[in-house]
Design goal:
The structure holds 2 protein chains of 2 kinds. By secondary structure, chain A is of the alpha/beta class. Chain A contains 5 helices and 7 strands, in the order αβαββαβββαβα. In chain B, β5, α6 and β6 form a beta-alpha-beta unit. Classes of the chains: A alpha/beta, B alpha/beta.
Chain lengths: 190, 306
């Protein structure tokens, strides 16, 4: 797949994926379990995506699941290996995780290391009944035995490319872009 | 911003942006201590040595707990039990510590500049936990963090530091940090303990308590060290308390919502009346809580730059 300056997926594609994910989550829940449903968005773009999925569910069911934001920096396995540490973003888990049904949300599933870190973090906050993973894009090449339960789109792409999901809430526009990995998403946002 | 320093030596060496980065990072680490599991694996597999050549209880305890909450492995070495007492040089002692594959040395030393001397010669990180009358960066960071948390900003605030400025590394570190972040800093106390030269770096210098704290948003009181009295910097502890102590009367000079801070240990009834230390404006115990968060942030950032 080539790098793109026009989005691989546009805003309406993203909306469609989010609606699909919300639908699939609901289809696997019995009505009496809906009250236990809660979302955890991984900083940065997992947070607005979790908000959007929760909003779709709220419109469909009248029940608004709570959304937490989680930064996994303190749980990384590469501190002292990376050249510089990423900035720590806000973690805010405003509800008790015990006995909850947690949908963990991130923008892109790649190596699986972020999800591993997030699972460790979540277990330090409480003991949910179970945790499922939702991602907008699954780009494959996982390094850990981690698979997503809800996927917006699966794409096949080489490791020298970066899949960048931009969200209106964090980047002032919506879209999924393919970039050369060395550019990074900062330049696209500018 | 990207943090690239493997050492924390002094706030003098840091930019306003770097100081702000530590404070932002500390805000997230503060939440860790409020959770059910008060621990993160950020420094798992890293070894930190707390090397306190000068005795310390509260700073060492705070660092040690910060390290534990980051999942680091820890060794504590006190001066009395180190080979310094057998005549080994400081550099040899620390080189020997480093040879044990230690990642960070947190050190307190009575000689100003001891950390600067070591930082270039060691590959491991060096964190200053106090050096002579020079610098105590984590204390100033926790003071500034506390002000920021309570007041929402630093720029434009009037901060008065009262007491023995001459011998105080806490005062020096606070002055550097606060000036860089745009506060108006005043120092006050007996003229013998408040060097006039500080005016050259942009600090207002007063030898009168009313003048020093009038209209202050924050007053940081330093401990009057009884042992200094032998050198006759002021006539008596009672006289100091009468002229420079913050009490029910003198607190009226401050703004109504001013914060009262103290790095501890307090001499109750000397620099600070008990009713004020335990009163609604006091944030002294919050300073202690915030110290833990700030030290976690510093150790995390330093470890990331190794």
């Amino acid at each position: 797949m080539k790098t793109t300056t026009v989005p691989l997926f546009k805003e309406k594609d993203m909306d469609f994926m989010i609606a699909n994910i919300a639908e699939s989550i609901l289809s696997k829940l019995t009505k009496n379990k809906l009250k236990d449903l809660a979302f955890i968005g991984i900083q940065i773009r997992g947070v607005p995506l979790a908000d959007r999925i929760a909003e779709v569910i709220s419109k469909k069911t009248g029940i608004t699941p709570p959304v937490a934001m989680l930064d996994i920096s303190m749980y990384r396995d590469d501190i002292g290996i990376r050249k510089t540490l990423p900035h720590i973003h806000i973690t805010d888990v405003p509800f008790d995780l015990d006995e909850k049904i947690i949908i963990l949300v991130d923008d892109v599933l790649h190596t699986g290391r972020t999800i591993r870190a997030a699972l460790d973090a979540i277990t330090d906050y409480g003991r949910p009944d179970y945790i499922r993973l939702a991602v907008l894009i699954d780009r494959g090449n996982q390094e850990f035995p981690i698979k997503a339960d809800y996927i917006g789109e699966t794409i096949t792409i080489s490791d020298d490319k970066l899949v960048s999901v931009l969200c209106l809430e964090t980047d002032n526009k919506n879209g999924v872009y393919i970039l050369p990995a060395k550019i990074g998403e900062g330049e696209l946002i500018k | 911003m990207n943090w690239t320093k493997k050492d924390l030596l002094s706030l003098y060496d840091l930019s306003a942006e770097e100081i702000q980065h530590i404070l932002d990072t500390a805000a997230e680490f503060k939440k860790v201590s409020e959770r059910r599991v008060k621990k993160v694996p950020a420094l798992r597999g890293k070894t930190v040595v707390n090397f306190f050549v000068e005795p310390s209880t509260r700073t060492r305890t705070s660092f040690e707990l910060a390290e534990q909450r980051l999942s680091a492995d820890i060794i504590n070495i006190a001066a009395s039990s180190s080979s310094l007492s057998k005549g080994e040089t400081l550099l040899d002692t620390t080189k020997n510590i480093e040879a044990l594959q230690v990642d960070i040395i947190v050190m307190r030393h009575s000689a100003a500049g001891a950390h600067n001397f070591l930082a270039d010669k060691l590959k491991c990180g060096v964190v200053n936990a106090g050096d002579g009358a020079h610098s105590h960066p984590t204390q100033a960071l926790l003071d500034i963090f506390t002000i920021l948390e309570k007041k929402g900003k630093i720029e434009g605030l009037n901060v008065s530091i009262i007491g023995d400025i001459l011998h105080s590394r806490v005062a020096r570190s606070n002055i550097w940090g606060l000036l860089k972040l745009g506060a108006n800093v005043t120092i006050g106390g007996p003229a013998t303990l408040v060097p006039k030269d500080f005016a050259k770096i942009g600090v207002r210098v007063c030898d009168n308590l009313k003048e020093a704290v009038e209209g202050a948003d924050v007053v940081n009181l330093l401990r009057i060290q009884h042992e200094r009295q032998k050198a006759a910097f002021f006539p008596s502890i009672n006289e100091y308390a009468n002229i420079f102590g913050l009490n029910e009367e003198t607190i009226k000079y401050l703004k109504k919502d001013a914060l009262v801070m103290h790095p501890g240990p307090i001499n109750r009834g000397v620099e600070l009346a008990s009713s004020i230390a335990d009163g609604p404006q006091s944030v002294i115990l919050e300073q202690v809580t915030n110290g833990l968060a700030v030290r976690m942030a510093v150790l995390y950032l330093v470890a990331g730059a190794l």
